Amino acid sequence: MPAKALSASLLFSILYFFASGTTNHAFAQAWTMPKGEYFVKITGSSVTASDQYTFDGRTVDFVDGVQGNAFMDQSLYLYGEFGFFENITLVLSLPYKRTFIEDLAFKYQTFALGSGTVGARFSLLPLLGAKPSALSLSLNLGAHIPLGYTRNFAPSVGAGQIDAQATLGIGYSFYPVAAYVQAGGGYRYRSSQYMFSKATGCNVGSDINCIRDLQPTFGDEFLFSAEAGMAFMNGMLFFQALGHGVWSVNEPIIGFTAVNPIPTQQRYIKAGGGFSIYPFRITRIYSFADLGIGVQYFITPYGRNAIQSQDIFVGIEYRIRL
User: Fold this and answer.
1) Helix and strand counts by DSSP (H, E) for the chain
2) Distance from the CA of 205 to the CA of which of 8, 66, 212, 223 falls in 20 to 30 A?
3) What does the CA dihedral 266, 269, 270, 271 come to, rounded to 10 degrees?
4) Would you say the C-alpha torsion 260, 266, 271, 274 has a positive or negative sign?
5) Residue 155: is it exposed, middle or buried by C-beta count within 10 angstroms (0-12/13-18/19+)?
6) What radius of gyration, in Å, describes the C-alpha atoms of the chain?
7) According to the model, what pLDDT value does residue 172 have?
8) What is the pTM of this model?
9) Running DSSP on this structure, what letter comes out for residue 291?
10) What is the tens place of the pLDDT at every residue in 137-172?
11) Which superfamily does 3-320 belong to?
């Protein structure tokens, strides 16, 4: 494969690597996939926290009196994209959640499918009559749908209700240099529809991980993200700078329960970086040139009513060309 074609191929691949562990990360995408091509990724996460941000921004123990990581999430995510039409990409994400919380008396744990994501990305510049260029602009529409879990098991693997969101992603490719930047922003509507999750009755005194099913009202949120990436050694190595956040429309005024840490209103910023390797890009085994292994790491430098976590995602990805 010529070096020029390899660089172009790399740009398509690295723009999808941001779709990492958490389903909420996918909204920043600015590029659609070519028609008929697939992108798949399996990611494992390790999210740990010993502290939390209170509703007014103070840092306190995640669970008062517990030293070390009182919160831990070790989950698996299956993420996929399909170039349905030339300027339309279908998006799907399925999580298997494994969440652990420890207080002074018990260790709570829940294993279940969480809330999946289904959506589509629409390239807007062709619809506006713009000619192909290094600039890209896309509309992302998606919904987060509970996959049948019991929402009042603590810690719950999801909020239990349906969310819908719309975001714009804008990106710029520096081709022939294998580098890009992109940013995204939008709005998430958090509904009061709970029909795709379930609740169970609690036996007081025996079901220590069962809580009352309150079906709270979750606040809508603004979403934002930014990232930059660059590849080296003919695309074999790739580095990223990453950031994303959530900003509740209404100011957080009520804290969350540490045993079931799903805030109804929250604000936070995640900052981090990523590294991936495509080992077959320097060989002549072109059928595996888009096979990559990557790691991403995030911290939470700011939050209100949010977990102050450290997030690690390790994934393996592959792009299928038809």
Assistant:
1) 1, 15
2) 66
3) -170
4) positive
5) buried
6) 20
7) 94
8) 0.88
9) -
10) 999 999 999 999 999 999 999 999 999 999 999 999
11) monomeric porin ompg (2.40.160.40)
Q: Residue 92 corresponds to which amino acid?
A: L
Within 8 A by CB and 6+ apart from 275, the residues are: 237, 238, 239, 240, 294, 295, 296
- Whether 41 and 18 have beta carbons less than 8 Å apart is answered as no
CA distance 198 to 136: 41
**CA angle in degrees (0–180, nearest 5) for 314-318-321:** 165
Q: How many CB atoms lie within 10 A of CB 34?
A: 14
List, for the chain, all residue ranges whose pLDDT scores fall below the cut of 50: 1-10, 12-14, 16-27
Residue 250 vs residues 56, 58, 197: alpha-carbon distances, Å: 13, 18, 25
Q: Which two tokens stand for residue 19?
A: 């779709």
Cα–Cα distance measured from residue 27 to residue 140, given in angstroms and rounded to the nearest whole number: 6
What length does the chain have? 322
Q: Where are the beta strands (DSSP E) in the chain?
A: 38-53, 59-61, 71-73, 76-85, 88-102, 107-113, 115-123, 135-146, 163-173, 179-190, 221-232, 237-248, 267-277, 292-304, 306-320
- Can you read off the two tokens belonging to residue 84? 């349905």
- Cα–Cα distance, 260 to 157 (Å, whole number): 9
